[in-house]
Amino acid sequence: MIELFLSELRRFRTAAILYAAAGLVLVTVMNQLTDLVTGPRELHAVMTLLYALSGLGFALYQFGTYRQPSRWIWLLHRPMHRAPILAGITLASVLLIALAMALPLFVLLGLQDHFTARVVDTRHYAGIGFMALTSVSCWLSGAYIMLHRSRWAFVVLMLPILLTMHMASYGTMLALALACNAVLLVLVYTVFRPNRYTGDDAVATVASAVPLQLSFYIALLWSGSTLFQVGQMVAGVHPLEADEAAAGGGVEASRFDPREALQAGLAAVKDPRAAGWSAALGRDSSASLGPGQRQYTVRDTVSARSGLKIADSQQNNWTFSHDRMMYSGLNRHARPAGWFGAGGKGDAVPFDSQPVPLRDNRARGYLANAHDMYELEQGGLKLRHVLHAAGREQLGAGIAVLGPRTALLTNRRVALLEERGGQLAPLASIPLPVPFGDLDRAEVGQVADGTLVSFIGGRRRLDGVMPAPHVVYLVDAGGQVRELGRREVVHDFPVLFEHRDWWVSPVLHAAVSLPAILIERGVVPDYGASRFAPLLLPRPPAVWAAAIALALLSALASAWWTGRAALGPGARLAWCLACLLLGMPALLSLMVLQPRVVREEAAASGAPVAASA
């Protein structure tokens, strides 16, 4: 093992040194053009992709040479188990990746941390570690692709995407990356042998089938959705491509401006004053409430979503530090300008989480995080606290000012505040008629009799949520809230298309959804709802019928296929049950892992046939 470890280092040392030198020069030049550590997440995603592709290419070349019979004989012509052989190659490769890819970034970040006034947090160092682990994941995936007998082995690349690509804290991300690498290492071990057609045992089959089924599930959804929508476009009936959207549908509602949305809601109101309200509404007396933010940046996340930097009237740039939970300032000469906390410039009180800058309909600036809204006074960095959302209530980052009243959107309600003596005092609270995740948009309008508030649901109708109401409320001068009327927004797409994620494979839908549900990603939740509520949505009878029919069809097809693939009774039963439970993705993975033609040729030539489970 030690000999293999050292030989791999000697074999690739020149390439690693050249890669590290080129990478250091490149990132140094880029860092002069833009601050890489505080750059947008799109930049970080591109950098991670490039390093991941480097790891993948390294593995394809490395194991492509080991697939040569002479090299396999050299590797295996020794009294050693294949485990220490794989361990030696893996440890050497991981060390090469760390030295060639991660070390230059650590050097550059350390120099910036100690010799400049730019913000460098612990999460930035952790981000380099995550990037290196992602490269290792792609290296292991490349090894699996080269050593697996199937040409479909490349779908294992979906595993790192499903497990690790989340906007979570760096501790969670590093743990997920390590877990992903452990799973991939087990997969590589199952195929690490010179004869790619042996070892077709239960463990190897299951290890190959699980990522294959998940990948086929995603591929079926993407390809099926794309083909269906392309067909609609060719036929000229795609709802999003039509010049005039269907009346009363969700596409039409999404194209409304605030005044039109209020007028569409008032059209279903029976109050005799509704026609007058509708005619009196103008662009200056109506405004949108968002939602402006559905996901906030989690503390210590590897890459921030948005709102990391703000500027003041003195041309100072302020960058948010996750270590101190405050803004650090730099003047035009790149010199420190102090700190900016929850109380304003010079205040040492940290924010609860990274705030997001936003503006209301009058172009006034605000800072908002999940629980607090601050008004940013013009001409300086002074903050006025506007609203605090306690407990499970979180801000939707929507704010509008109409006359003396200010409306703020949360995941539970619209809080209506009124200016009294220079302070904002609560006037009314209008509960959301739909869960926050289903809320497509909200508007407010000022009329002679008070304030109109409109809610349009249906944002998650493409995820299978059926109700999509449009509800209008009136808040009178005394703060009394009254529902004026409601209408149902028509669904523009067929029901099977809207529920396609579920009926293709309910079990795999749950498996793919679980990481996003369990990992804290800063998503604004539905107030009072269980975290697992998206998995328990009611499904129409037509969707249940499609799911059952597809499962039965997959089971019958698997029974026919396994009979032709010369499998034993136990293996046939296991595959049929898997296809009945998981549907079409399991059937496709069966066709890949148990190719009928190869089995028949192997049996005719006297080669070993698949063992029974």
From TrEMBL:
Q: Show which residues constitute the signal peptide.
A: none
Name the domain of life: Bacteria
Q: Which UniProt keywords apply?
A: Membrane, Transmembrane, Transmembrane helix
Membrane-traversing stretches: 12-31, 43-64, 85-112, 124-145, 152-168, 174-192, 204-223, 542-561, 573-593
Q: Please give the name of this protein.
A: ABC transporter permease
Q: Which organism is it from?
A: Massilia aerilata
